[in-house]
Amino acid sequence: MINKTVSNVQEALKGVADGMTFMLGGFGLCGIPENAIAELVRLGIKDITCISNNAGVDDFGLGLLLQKHQIKKMISSYVGENDEFERQMLSGELEVELTPQGTLAEKCRAAQAGFPAFYTPAGYGTEVAKGKETREFDGKMYVLEPAFKADFSFVKAWKGDEAGNLIFKGTARNFNPCMCGAAKITVAEVEELLPAGSLDPNQVHIPGIFVQRIFQGEKFEKRIEQRTVRTKK
Fold first, then answer.
1. What is the pTM of this model?
2. Among 34, 127, 175, 178, whose Cα sits 20 to 30 Å from the Cα of 101?
3. 77 located within any domain
């Protein structure tokens, strides 16, 4: 069986360069590839395009890349929790492409499946559809959306094995599965890395064929984006 394990995050990100397009899993701060993001910050690569549901918060997640002005363009569906993102977007420093959340997920899945494009009703008649082909099916209008093209996909999983098979936990599953195999190279960081064949095949969410590199992450913070608690009586 092929062993896709790399020893650390530095080896996992070998080949990243300025101007590349990256997919990054996660929803808010849930299930984000923390180690990969930290390494991108350390490497200082710039002019990158990031495809991610959102941009994290100011001092964590993709917000760390924004602080260093490493991101040239963000393709996201929700960006309301990051003040620096707002500042850069309004000042024209950051190019932003807002995409309906379901469309963003499907653009990832289409790339994963090898489909060049798909039709969706989401966004028809709005700015989202400007410059795009539209077509009517059964009396309803649809917009042609191209699949994403990315150089690297960075995902976070709960468990993985040396063959690249992955299991996600709870809501950390979010955008991570559909980004696996949707780029030229998929890098998975996992909380627990096991020998090949250790995972129950019936529990595997993503088979190893969609993953090129896997490593065991460390020092996961797993921050909570919005904490709400009851007041003491």
1. 0.93
2. 34
3. yes
